[in-house]
Amino acid sequence: MGIVGHEITLSRLRAGLIRPWTMLADLVYPPACPGCGVSTGAHRGLCPICWSGIRLIERPYCEVLGSPFSHDLGSGILSAEAIADPPVFDRLRSAAVHDGVVRDLVLNLKYRDRTDLAPMMAGWMLRASDGMVAACDAIVPVPLHRTRLFSRKYNQAAELARHLARLSGKPLLPATLLRSKRTSQQVGLGARARQDNVRGAFTIPAARAADVFGRRIVLVDDVYTTGATVSAATRALKKAGASDVTVLTFARAVGELI
Ligand SMILES: [Zn+2]
Fold it and tell me: What's the 4 CA to ligand 1 centre distance in angstroms?
């Protein structure tokens, strides 16, 4: 590993993305880059080539929509989109632009049983949450419909939420928000069709409303595209009395539909 690799390892250690106990696991599963599979020698995490291709989302960005700005216009600035069409959630934060290696990580977690990627991805999300996880009362994953959960075996958003809860010590509410309507896949649909597809898809059973009433919630999903899914989920949370909803995703599509 060259100097660049060591610097990346050090910065990731400081960011809390690598933990000492992973050294034990390294004896059993030699570390490989989660992006391309190349052996990473002594450190667990992305290889320098994959790491350099990732666009982390950092300030300056819109305080509401978290959209990256090309120039720093000062603190507390909102994007034109957030002013013209305010979202139902209070703010959106995402770890990285949905592209290249980030897209591969999302697909591997979602479809290829790579739940081992979730701790690393949740670590990035915690950092990107800008203190909102630390300030919240509970973490809620965007749920899958039970029939889809049966065919997929696990919910990728719930895996990310579970590790965020473990890293932050915040309560996880895995069964409060339910997907009451089986919807089509959002992939391939336009913005309007996505809204229609998920309208009324989420509910919170009356017996569970106290879980979110008056609470600050972090709503977790893997990718933010048009916001149709998390907006529908936020409406259900707010209807049950949630006082504040931060949407936190691993990836954020910028200027594209997936
Ligand atoms: Zn790699």
Answer: 14
Assess contact for 95 and 250: CB atoms under 8 A. Answer: yes
Give pLDDT, residue 131.
97
The Å distance, Cα 182 to ligand 1 centre, comes to 36
Q: Say how many Å lie between the CA of residue 47 and the centre of ligand 1.
A: 4
What is the whole-number distance in angstroms between the Cα of residue 113 and the centre of ligand 1?
19
- Range of 100's domain? 55-252
- 37 in any annotated domain: no
Q: What is the CATH number of the domain that holds 92?
A: 3.40.50
pLDDT in tens, 207-224: 999 999 999 999 999 999
Quick check: is 201 in a domain? yes
- Close Cβ partners of 67 (under 8 Å, ≥ 6 residues apart): 61, 79, 81, 82, 254
Structure confidence at residue 22 (pLDDT): 58
Beta strands in 198-238 (DSSP E): 202-203, 216-224
- Chain CA centroid to CA 21, Å: 24
Q: What percent of the chain has pLDDT over 90?
A: 64
Ligand 1 (ion): which residues have CB within 5 A? Answer: 33, 35-36, 47, 50
Taking 80 as the threshold, does the pLDDT of residue 43 lie above it? Answer: no
Counting the structural domains of the chain, the total is 1
Domain assignment of residue 175, yes or no? yes
CA 120 / ligand 1 centre spacing (Å) = 14
Task: Measure 103 CA to ligand 1 centroid, in angstroms.
Answer: 13
200 Cα distance to chain centroid? 22
Q: Is residue 6, in this structure, part of any structural domain at all?
A: no
